[in-house]
Design goal:
Blueprint: H1 2-7, H2 13-32, H3 45-60, E1 63-82, E2 86-103, E3 109-112, E4 118-129, E5 139-140, E6 147-148, E7 171-177
Antiparallel strand pairs: 1-2, 2-3, 2-4, 4-7, 5-6
Length: 178
């Protein structure tokens, strides 16, 4: 961790863990609400495609994936790698939620657990380019210069440009659940 802090003086462990927790929750809510555009600027193309495939399957079967009472119990950095081009942090996140699938029309339970939360261990990998651009506190649209709220959807409300977080910050590049 000390080497990472020397090379990236903007890194804060507590802020990073908060970002991890928020992206994890937003990703699951996006899957549940059938709206990955809320998180696509925080995740790699591979993670987006993985979750889009899950959404497509659910939609084809007229189903909704539910994650009721979703929360994060703990978030721990378990590995830090520094390459010539990027920083890579592996995180173990323990989550708790009710995990089940319902029919879109009838809202009846199809499978899973909707009576009590279960605990799951998630491994997330985040990467950040070593050559990230300085972004400051106010996010500006790279196309038209308007202020942007990237936590909302990462899309400029004026010109429609997507804010590419990969050029500025940490992005989720892999996620697995045990």
């Amino acid at each position: 961790m000390e080497e990472l802090i020397k090379l990236d003086n903007t890194f804060s462990e507590s802020k990073f863990k908060t970002k991890v927790d928020n992206i994890f929750v937003m990703l699951h809510i996006s899957l549940m609400t059938n709206n990955l555009s809320r998180v696509d600027h925080f995740i790699s193309d591979n993670v987006f495609n993985e979750f889009q495939t899950r959404l497509d399957y659910l939609n084809q079967n007229n189903q909704i994936q539910m994650f009721d009472e979703l929360n994060v119990k703990s978030t721990d950095i378990i590995d830090i790698k520094i390459t010539d081009n990027e920083f890579i942090i592996t995180v173990k996140l323990i989550s708790r939620y009710m995990d089940y699938i319902i029919d879109k029309d009838s809202k009846k339970l199809i499978s899973g657990n909707n009576t009590h939360r279960i605990e799951k261990e998630n491994i997330l990998i985040f990467t950040k380019k070593r050559t990230v651009k300085e972004q400051g506190f106010v996010r500006k649209c790279p196309s038209c210069g308007a202020n942007m709220d990237i936590n909302n959807n990462g899309k400029c409300e004026y010109c429609g440009t997507i804010y590419n977080t990969e050029d500025y910050d940490w992005i989720l590049t892999d996620i697995s659940t045990k």
